[in-house]
Structures are given as structure tokens and as C-alpha cells.
Amino acid sequence: MLIASQLEPTYARTVYPCFDEPAMKATFNIRIVHDPSYVALSNMPAIDVSEMKDENGSLWTVTTFNTSLKMSTYLTAFVICDFDYVTRTERGNEIRIWARKEAVKNGYVDYALSITGQIFSFLEDLLNISYPLPKTDLVALPDFGAGAMENWGLMTFQESSLMYLPSDKFTSRKAMIAVIVSHELGHQWFGNLVTMNWWNDLWLNEGLASYFEYLGATFVEPKLSLNEIFYDHVVQPVLREDNEIGVRSLSESEDKIKGSFSLMSLFDSITYNKGASITWMLSGFLTEKLFIRALTSYLKEFSFSNANQDDLWTHIQMVVDAQDEVQLPASVKQIMDSWTCQNGFPVLTLNLTTGTISQEQFLNKKNENNTDSHNNTWIIPISWMRNGSSQPLMWLDKSSKVFPEMQVLESEYDWILLNVNLSGYYRVNYDRLNLKRLAHLLENDPKAIPAVSRFQLIDDVFALTQFGYIQIETALELTKYLAREDELFIWNVVLLNLVPENLESTLKNYEVYPLLKKYLLKRMLPIYHYYAGFIRQNVDALEDDYFAQVYLEKLFATACWLGLQDCLNLSSELYAKWMDNPEYKIPFLIRRTVCCYGVAVGSDKEWNFAWEMYNHTDSTKEDKDILLSAMSCAKESWLLYRYLQYGLSDTLFSSNCTSIIIFYVVTKDIGHRIAWEFVTENWPLLSERYGKELLHDVLKVMGRFVNTDVQIQELQVFYNATLEEDERVATTLLLEFTKFENMERRELLIKVANWLQKNVDD
């Protein structure tokens, strides 16, 4: 048995009567009556443990905790468990990490213990404000809806966010734990000590904690490259989302939130990632020294109290006014409100010949509703380089402006790069002249452009293509150099754009596939062979290569998907090795790909082995999922059909696996038809057994993978025959959308094919 609380945002009121508002801070006296064989934890240290009898004469333990500091209701917390802990004291703060007894005994929380104190001290020294509590408990919960929660003095985590198996050689797991622990520790200052006035400024908690999580993580794991990981994990994903019509701004008015948003919906990538990206940009143009100085002053003034966004701007302004090294083009509030109070972000267009930069909101030009010009302008810091040397920071504070320094004559070979190392939260659209020069530079000397800027260049051109700012051919020009690209995180963004996961089965059907195969493989070989060498000889040598652990799988999967013989051979070799000795572990970095292609290249013998291993009791949840997916990679129709039949059987699977199996089969090129026939044939049984929920998932997925209009019609006929009226409307909309997407995709693929045709032999 285990009891733990999660009170953010508004659940404290369901536990005890209170004014459950973040600004109504109070001190709390907590006492818990519980079974004597359990331990009770709360925000503060226990000051008394006594016994009492109830009316039946049973014994209970009463644990009384010290009075809390002045704090918000949503941060009060308690856990009642029979866990063990490991402990270490850092600067008088007793840190304990609690987990299931066997997990503690096996050393699973030792890593977390070794970094928690270090990160605490790092933050105390950086912010120059000491942590006010005498103890800190971190608890690993076997089941927990949130990733982690920063309750003051009693932080809770999912087990996977806090546990590191000493046998695990690879740092990516450590990195994830370091990031999550740093995030929650960052909250002890941003959120707990100083809390936002109300939820509409939630980003003051989450954005700042998401910024500090990367500083803390790279402090304890110095081998991680801070700006590459920050850009890859934080900025790039939110730039992909922050351009839909309905996206809210970072800081909305209270009335608007109360009127139209649920509080839970505020805990999203805008609050976390955009908040962190804007903070990163702010720290960049102020310099970290001034930024931290301003934060310290802000934290000191509002300790044990509440603040809003303007309070933070005021403290930054005070620090800026007190020095003369950093000059800003406007007040901090004017600059920052343009980023936090408007939704979306700008795209900058540079004209090399005139040296003009203009800005507009980045919106999908293919979308009719977006043509009415949004007159939003931002005050934009521009870090830039010319011919490889960094230039002084520039500011664009109106819709367009001429920068004589950026004028380049046709005859010269000068090139210009804006937003170097993604210091600003925006995209850049270069004119053809500059793009040609950048493409030329990449082919001759890719390292002249910093890695993060290469990533950004490629991500920007594909995003600009998608939204109709430039032609796909322009984006493809920038991929010619890739044989010289040795950074996996850059390859990953290329592959996400050229071979999106949900299109693998579609691309196989088109004439673009053999061209793509020839063009991409030629460029992938150097990096593929570099990593294949490690896989064959000494995979442990990659233990500090963070991006190999996160992205090697995608590179290998693509190589195998493109039919690279060495990749297929490697997969069968390693899979055969596992079949000979089930104790053998396929390298974790490419296990999913090896299992998939081991089954694909093999016959029923390989498939049956996967099935047998899946049913092994001691395989982990992760391995089970890998095998579920691998069994759908079979290339023989009867195996896939049998697999789907297995999926129907009560005895072999829990019902939630059925939809996963259908999903895996439907996304494979030969599985698509088989899954479709299977679902239509077994519909009565499926719908009787699994009810509406599962079927909706299945139908949605089917809809996503229909590739031709004929298939869409089939699906529509089927929906009409089986669905209720109201469901039909939703699914019809989905199909309409799919149809439109198919049309667009076909046009795009024709263009790509034509371009590849011309360039495939370069």
C-alpha cells in the first residue's frame, strides 16, 4: 500500500478546507495518523512520533511535523509508505531519497543521491540565496500521473525519473534524471520561495525551472553539450507547435484564463518550453551575469510571497539601469512583453543585396485564414556572424530595417548567418543568394558553421517549406553536403523531415523511394559505418555519446528501411546471436531496429522466437514493447495475420495490447491491407469486446495511414455502416483532412522526385 499526494494546481481543497489560491500563503501544521508499519512524510521534518488506540483497541502511529514556512496550499504534501531510503547531508540540509526496499538495496537511487546535493549547492551559489528548509525528501513512486512534483521539502517522482540501474552503461538515462531532478530543485526557488500571483503567470515557475534544469544537469554531467541539448529538446519542439492559430500567448490575462482555459491545460509546452526559450534569449542579450544578478534581487524581494511578470521585468530593469555595458533599445518590459503577451513568434527575412531585415508572424501561408496580415511586431535581438566571425548584437525593433553592415555585393563570396546558436526564439528566411552561399559553404567546410546553427538552418528551411515561404527544392539544396555531417542530432532533424515516421509505409509506394534510397544512402554511409563499427566492436565506448543514445536508432532504422545491406546483415547477425543465447543482450541503442529487421529478414523461426521472448515473465516493459513492434515487421502475410489473431485472444493479451498490435501492423507497408481486412472482418467481435474507446483509436490510426483516395472511400463506407451519427461527423472530418493531406503530399513527392532525379548523381 502507498499513499501520496499531488495537489497542484487545485486539489488541496479536496484534502483539507482552505483558501486554495497560490497567493494566499500560510504556515501549516500537519499531523498524520497511520498504520504503525508505515512511515509518514511531509514537507517538514517529523518532530514527534507517538502511539494511540482507536475504539477497537487497534494501535496507530501519530506523526507530527514541524510548522511549515509560509507557503502556498498547492505545495503541501504527504506520503505514507513502507519504503527505505539513502541519505546524505549537504550544507546542513539532510537529503533522503526514498524508494521501494529492493530498489534501494540494488542501488537504483544512488545516482540521484550523488547529484542532488551538488545541484542544491550549485543553485545556492549561483542565486546567492540559501535553501531555507532543514531537510529534503525525494520519493520514487511506482505509479504517478505527473513526471515529478516540486512540493517544498518533499518532492515526488515517477520511478523512471529517479532510478538509474548501476548496470546501465549509458549516460542518456543519467542525463534524463539530472534534468528532472534539476527542474524540481530549481522550483525550490522559482515557485516555492517566490510563487506566481496566479496561474496565468505559471511560466514564472515552469519556464524558469525549465531553464535552470539544463544548467543544473550540465553542471553535474559536464560531458553533455548544453546548447545542443537545449536547442534540440526545448526550442525546436516548441517552434514546431507555437504557430497554430489557437495557440495562447505565454502570459494571458487572468480573465481570459478563467473564461476559456482549464488550469490543467496551462501545463503545456508553451509554459515549459517557450518559457525556457524566452528565458534563454533574455539571459543571452543581458549576459548571464546581469540576468542572475536580477534574479537574485527578484527572489530576495519576493521571498515567502508572490510576484507577477512585471515584477520580474522591474528587477531586471533596475540591474540594467545600474550599469552601462549592456544597452537595450527599449525598456525590458517593452522588449519582453512582445514575446510573452503576443502569441506565436516572428520569422525574419534577410535581403543580402539591400541589407534589409523584415519581420512577420510565422504562420502557415497555405492556410487561407492566415492571409489577413497579423500586425504583430517583436523587439528582436539578432546575434549574427559574417564569414565565420561573430558580430556585435543588433536589434530589430520595427517591422523592417536596413542594416548597412549586412549588405553584401553580388561579386563577393561573403555569407551571413543570423540568430547564431539559436539565441533568439524565431526562425530565419534567407534570400536565394545567401542560401546558395551557405549551401556552398556547407559542401566545402561544414564546420565553419557551428553545429547548433547547422541544425537550425536545416530545421528552419524545412519549416519554411512546410508553411509555403520557400520551395522544397531550396530546402533540399541544403542536404547535399550531408556526407560530411558527423553530428547525429543534425542527421536526426534531416530524417524527421525527409522520412517522417508516419510516412514510411507511404513513401515505399512511390517512385520517390528508389531515388531517396540512392541519394540518402550515399550521404549516410560515413556516419552509418562510424557507428556500426562501435556496435560490432565495442558498444560501451559510446557510453558518453548522448545523442548516439537518443538518435542512433533513427539513423539505423532509416538505413535498414532504405535497404542498406550492411544494416540488414547486422540486424540478422545480432538477432541470431540472441536466438543462440537468450542471455545475450542486443545493444540497447539499436535494439528496436535489430529486432524488427531480425524478424523481417527471417522466417517464422525468428518470429516465433520473438513471441517466446515476449511471453517470458522477466522481460521488462520496454523490451515487451520492442517485441510487440518487432513481430509486426514480418514480411510474410500469414505471420501478420496470425499475429492479429493472437491479439484477439483473451488468454494471450490484455485488451490494451490489441489496439497496439493493430496499430503496429497497420503502419507497416505490407501490414496495412492485412490490418484493414482483419478489422473489417472482426468488427462485431472487436466492438463487442472493446467498446467505443479502443475502436476510435483504431479507426483514427487507420485514417492516418490511408494513402489513396480509393482507400479513403473504403474507410468512409465502412464508417457509415458501423458508426453512430455523432461519431460519423468527427471521423468524416478526419478523412477530409487526410484526403487534403494526401493531395498535398502527392504534389510534394512529385517535386521531391523531380529534384532527386536531377541531383541523385551529384
From TrEMBL:
It is a single-pass type II membrane protein. Its EC number is 3.4.11.-. Its cofactor is Zn(2+). Zn(2+) binds at residues 183, 187, 206. Residues 2-75 form the Aminopeptidase N-like N-terminal domain. Its main location: membrane. Belongs to the peptidase M1 family. This is Aminopeptidase. It comes from Eudyptes filholi. The lineage of its organism: Eukaryota, Metazoa, Chordata, Craniata, Vertebrata. The gene is LVRN.
